[in-house]
Design brief:
The chain has 203 residues and is of the alpha+beta class. The protein is built from seven helices and ten strands. The strands form three sheets. The chain has a four-stranded mixed sheet, with no helix packed on it. A four-stranded antiparallel sheet has the order 8-9-7-10, with helices on one face. The two termini are 41 Å apart.
Length: 203
């Protein structure tokens, strides 16, 4: 910590966690140059550590052009493939990905923001919330669930609330591959007789 001009060891760890400290420069301070020379047949000291902590990402996200980084998605906005996204580094929680128009993303400290992008080579299922406004009549719920499953989505959670004016608010959390499929799903749902509107929502 003294060599890198940090007040304490904890301050050094915080700087590393936020990305304010350069890992390469820290290693150069700690290890003599002779120990940093890589032998052709061996992994370097840093590479061996990275190999231990790196896991295959199931998020289809690249961080600054590098994949295989563990990230998580903000439940507040539930980004899916095709959305414009931004990432930020949170202490002790790694990298969290939000949609660019998410209220929480707009409040992110600029120093904590990090460039992220979708990996076009790999798509995975993501959770997303949709809400369908309908008239309150028998059979509509069955038709809604049929449309969701027909597109290859799975229902994680569902709740239905009726109103005094004989309307119903059907809320679902589903898995879906990308924004294009979500768009078609919502359009197909709106074609069902008795459906007033269907939308994606966050919160």
């Amino acid at each position: 910590a003294k060599k890198t001009k940090h007040a304490s060891f904890d301050d050094l760890l915080i700087a590393l966690g936020y990305g304010k400290a350069d890992v390469k420069k820290i290693v150069e301070k700690i290890l003599p140059e002779s120990e940093r020379i890589k032998k052709p047949e061996d992994q370097s000291f840093i590479e061996s550590i990275i190999t231990k902590v790196k896991r295959k990402s199931s998020t289809a996200i690249k961080v600054k052009g590098v994949d295989d980084i563990l990230v998580k998605f903000g439940r507040c906005c539930g980004p899916i493939y095709g959305d414009q996204i931004v990432g930020y580094i949170s202490r002790g929680r790694g990298i969290t990905v939000h949609t660019v128009d998410c209220p929480r993303a707009l409040d992110i400290d600029k120093e904590r923001k990090i460039d992220v992008e979708w990996d076009r080579k790999e798509k995975t299922l993501h959770n997303v919330r949709i809400r369908v406004f309908t008239i309150d009549s028998p059979g509509i719920l069955a038709q809604l669930t049929k449309e969701i499953t027909n597109i290859g989505s799975n229902i994680i959670q569902a709740s239905i609330r009726t109103t005094n004016d004989r309307k119903a608010i059907n809320s679902f959390e589903i898995t879906i591959e990308d924004a294009t499929k979500l768009y078609y799903l919502l359009k197909n749902i709106e074609k069902i007789k008795g459906v007033i509107a269907a939308e994606r929502y966050s919160g």
